[in-house]
Amino acid sequence: GGTSFDAIFEYVDRMDEPPFMIIILTDGYAPFPNLNESFNIPVLWLINNDIVTPPFGKIARIKISK
Would you say 54 and 34 are in contact if contact means Cβ atoms under 8 Å apart? Predict the structure, then answer.
């Protein structure tokens, strides 16, 4: 496997009515799509580390304690 953000935005492109927001829970270790592929839909990235920063959208960092 592996993460592919493209599948999310390809699915949105096929929808009859787009969502008002996209929320993606990820470690961020994958190629990010271009901003124009988001169709101007707000994106919230829920990232579980302090290393990866997506090139667009809002970011929330999730801290997981062991």
Answer: no
